[in-house]
Amino acid sequence: MTVGVAKGAALAYLYCALPKSDVTQILCAINSGDAKAAGELLPLLYDELRKLAGQRMSSESHDHTLQATALVHEAYLRLVGKDDPGWQNRAHFFAAAAEAMRRILVDHARAKLADKRGGDWQRITFEAASNLAAAAPEDLLLLDETLAELSGRDPISGKLVELRYFAGLSVEEAAAAVGVSAATAYRHWSFARAWLYSHIERRRQAPRQ
Q: CB count, 10 Å around CB of 129?
């Protein structure tokens, strides 16, 4: 065990020894190997993020863009606080938050398509990860489907993309969350971006059924 990992584990242990909120208690339980706790974290974060998103959209103008990654980090401060819970607990939080934010944006895109009011959204760019909510509903759903295919072929690349796009983590932060080196993460990230771009473009150009 490296010094950095040992220090992080010790910090997480000390953090979990103190009275904490529901979320941090769940994080600590996950860190202790409680498989049931992992299933409790996602719905809790989904509800909190959906509530925050609703508040932001209702308090802004009709053309306001939902900043997905900003919401994730706001939820982190609200639910975890400013104290450092250790990298292991942060990793569990952002992994679940990225998945929850992805589901919220996909649900939002489907609702927009159902209401026939998605025409003024902007097309996805692979540089604007924090602005995914501004993408056209069709493009966001296409990204979700293609990312699911990538995750089936290469789970590490899929998880890195999810953490980068939907939680706003840097490559280094995403690497720590996934448990790989930064160098390995950069290789997977480069591959994933190229793979997603080519497959999304191929799907866009395919004749509609």
A: 18
For the chain, what are the domain ranges? 3-205
- Rounded-to-integer distance, Cα 80 and Cα 187, Å: 31
Give the residue ranges of DSSP H helices in 33-154: 35-59, 68-79, 87-115, 137-153
11-38 pLDDT tens trace:
444 445 444 557 778 877 877 777 787 7
Model confidence pTM above 0.85 = no
Per-residue exposure over 92-128, b if at least 16 CB sit within 10 Å of its own CB, e if not: bbbbbbbbbbbbbbbebbeebeeeeebeebeebeeee
Supply 102's token pair.
């992805």
Which DSSP letter does residue 153 get? H
Task: Return the higher-pLDDT residue of 202 and 136.
Answer: 202
